[in-house]
Amino acid sequence: MKRRSVEPIYSMCVQPSFIIGTYNEDRSYNFAPITWVSATCEGDSYMLVISMFGSKKTKQNVIRDGKFSANLVNTSMLPLMDYFGTKHSVDKKVEEPVYGVGHGEVLEVPTLDESPWVYECEVARSVETGDSTTFFCPIRNIQMDENLICEDTFDVDLTVLDPVIYSGRYHSLGKMLGRIGDFRAKHTAGSAERNSFSYKQKL
Ligand SMILES: Cc1cc2nc3c(=O)[nH]c(=O)nc-3n(C[C@H](O)[C@H](O)[C@H](O)COP(=O)(O)O)c2cc1C
Known about the structure:
The chain is an alpha+beta fold and 203 residues long. The chain has a single domain (15-202), classed as Electron Transport, Fmn-binding Protein, Chain A (Pnp Oxidase, Chain A, Roll), CATH 2.30.110.10. The chain is built from 4 helices and 13 strands. The longest helix is centred in the last third of the chain and has 19 residues, at 184-202. The protein is globular and about 60 Å long. The two termini are 19 Å apart. Residues 194-203 have low confidence and may be disordered.
């Protein structure tokens, strides 16, 4: 593949979409979209890794309370995502959409009724990089849509969950392609074909 180099500034990076639920100091709830989200582990503890920049309310709440809900956003939740992502902008005319708020089963965190998959997280530690803070957060509970059929929490057909993928633009998923290992043989066969093709080209 021929590529060209571009300046390494903010660029496309494939990200999952979450709306983070926290409580404000007066115990009212607050929700905001965050897509700098990944996962890691420490021993048996499965952790969400989440980054926030600036001094937004969500970040202040997470620092103060040390807990939050991460509500996976599916395509039907995009109006909510857009609303929460722009509610502090100059356009104050946008009406608040209707949404239901629940609560954590294990942690005291507000959750969004519409989300099919919710992590209840507690902050274990954080790392500052300039204006951004990255939080490492053991997942204390997962709330999943009870209609979701899967063998275990790793075996989930994402095309049913229908998550929004963000990369500067919103996307939805295409097809479910298979499991780990399904493509080993195909890759080997494909590589052999490609190699012999380029080899022939060189001749
Ligand atoms: C699609 C999208 C993705 C975002 N991702 C992040 C993110 O990963 N980290 C972050 O700090 N802010 C992110 N934001 C910005 C916050 O959602 C936004 O500043 C929000 O208004 C903060 O609300 P709050 O002040 O109630 O916390 C994102 C916004 C949008 C629309």
